[in-house]
Design goal:
6% strand; 434 Repressor (Amino-terminal Domain); mainly alpha
Length: 70
């Protein structure tokens, strides 16, 4: 079982604002819908490279998409 991450995100908010379904965004990014679900729910932290790719796909800055508590 995976441990939830402390990293928080607004992926779902920005995805919905762009009008993408989880399946559409996952296909654009070349990942499974399950991977996107895990990221949106905070059960999985993407690699830094994938986080930048995701931010670009949603046309937001990475800092708007992900945050880490101090």
């Amino acid at each position: 079982m995976t441990k939830p991450t402390k990293l928080t995100n607004t992926v779902k908010f920005h995805r919905q604002a762009k009008g993408f379904t989880q399946e559409q965004l996952a296909q654009m990014l070349g990942v499974s819908r399950q991977t996107l679900i895990a990221i949106e729910s905070g059960k999985y932290s993407p690699s830094l490279e994938f986080a930048f790719t995701l931010a670009r796909a949603l046309d937001v800055e990475i800092g708007q998409l992900f945050s880490y508590p101090e």
